[in-house]
Amino acid sequence: MTSLADTLNGLTALPPAALRAEWRRLYRAPAPGLSSDLLARGIAWRIQEKQHGGLPPAVERELVRLASQTLSDPSPPAPTNLRPGTRLVRSWNDETYSVLVTDKGYRMGDQTFGSLSSIARTITGTKWSGPRFFGLKGNTSTKEARDA
Known about the structure:
By secondary structure, this protein is an alpha+beta fold. The chain has two domains: 4-54; 87-147, no CATH class. 48% of the residues lie in helices and 14% in strands. The protein is built from seven helices and four strands; from the N terminus they run H-H-H-H-E-E-E-E-H-H-H. It has helices spanning 4-10, 16-27, 36-52, 57-72, 116-124, 130-133, 142-147, and strands at residues 87-92, 95-102, 105-108, 111-113. Strand 1 (87-92) and strand 2 (95-102) form a beta hairpin. The N and C termini lie far apart (67 Å). The model is unreliable at 140-148 (pLDDT under 50).
């Protein structure tokens, strides 16, 4: 019987057709249209999952929740250095906006947002990097400073 390491190392030598067949065998579904490298990685994951066990159910649920949240708001996650209770203030077109960082996102007025980018989009009507809009990331350009 071959070791797990030997099995995983052997995946890199398989031709694409053999990888697709192995995917079908392990996942009981047709292989997706991925590169050979990604197919081999998916197969390696499945082999290790079968031998060592998969993720705990709570972790799987959290990943599904995060994936659905990302699909509904594809903005990048908020900077992790902002602690709940932090208040961000930004002036835009002669109006001042105040955002409160909470455990569940960002609160502006009576609305809670999942990202600073969605707040910046609400304020300006255009797509912005939320951290950049609120001055948390990089320097603002001369044009951005002039428009503010």
